[in-house]
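wait is this the right file?? whatever heres the structure
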C-alpha cells in the first residue's frame, strides 16, 4: 500500500497556474500542488507530469512556469551538445536526485526529485532508482544534435 497522499502535499511539486488572460499583462504565478502519482516505468509520463511545467514538453526550457522563475530552466535537449556530444548520464542522475549542485548559485527553483520520489515510494530505494533511471533515459532521448 502507498502512503497517504497528504505526504505528497507537503513535498509538493511546483507547477504553473493562474494566468490572468483578460489582463493587459498576463500574470503568472507558481502554484504548489500535490504531487501526481505516475508510473515509475514511464520516463515520458514522469517527465510530462513533473518536469515539463518548467523545462517545456519538448525539453527546451520554455515551459509555462519558466518565466516566473529567477533562474531559467535549462534546455535539456542540449545536455549532450554542451558536454562535447556525450550524454553525461551519471551527472544527470545526480542532478535529478539533487546530489549535484547546479551552477546557478543558490537556485532553489529546481526541485529535489530524489526526496520527492523517496516519499512517493514510501522509502523504496529500488523504485526511486527506477524513476531516476527512466527519467534519465527519457531526457537522453530528447537530445538534439
Ligand atoms: C520549478 C521548475 C523546475 C521543475 C519542475 C524541474 N526543473 Fe529541472 N531545472 C530547473 C532550473 C531553474 C534549472 C537550472 C538550475 C540552475 O542552473 O541552477 C534546472 C536544471 C535541470 C537540470 C540540469 C541541466 C544541466 O545540464 O545543467 C536537469 C538535468 C534537470 N533540471 C532535470 C529536471 C527533471 C528530470 C525534472 C522533472 C523530474 C525537472 N528538472 C523539473 C527548474 C525546474
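ok assuming it is, sequence goes like this
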Amino acid at each position: 500500500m502507498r502512503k497517504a497522499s497528504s505526504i505528497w502535499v507537503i513535498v509538493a511539486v511546483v507547477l504553473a497556474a493562474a494566468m490572468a488572460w483578460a489582463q493587459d499583462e498576463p500574470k503568472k504565478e507558481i502554484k504548489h500542488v500535490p504531487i501526481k502519482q505516475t508510473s515509475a516505468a514511464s520516463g515520458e509520463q514522469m517527465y510530462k507530469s513533473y518536469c515539463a511545467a518548467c523545462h517545456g514538453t519538448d525539453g527546451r526550457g520554455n515551459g509555462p512556469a519558466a518565466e516566473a522563475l529567477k533562474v531559467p530552466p535549462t534546455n535539456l535537449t542540449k545536455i549532450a551538445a554542451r558536454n562535447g556530444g556525450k550524454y553525461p548520464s551519471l551527472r544527470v542522475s545526480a542532478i535529478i536526485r539533487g546530489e549535484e549542485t547546479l551552477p546557478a548559485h543558490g537556485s532553489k527553483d529546481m526541485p529535489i526529485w530524489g526526496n520527492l520520489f523517496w516519499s512517493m515510494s514510501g522509502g523504496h530505494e529500488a523504485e526511486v532508482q527506477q524513476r531516476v533511471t527512466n527519467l534519465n533515459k527519457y531526457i537522453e532521448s530528447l537530445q538534439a544534435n
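The domain at 6-141 is CATH 1.10.760 (Cytochrome Bc1 Complex; Chain D, domain 2). so i think its the right one actually
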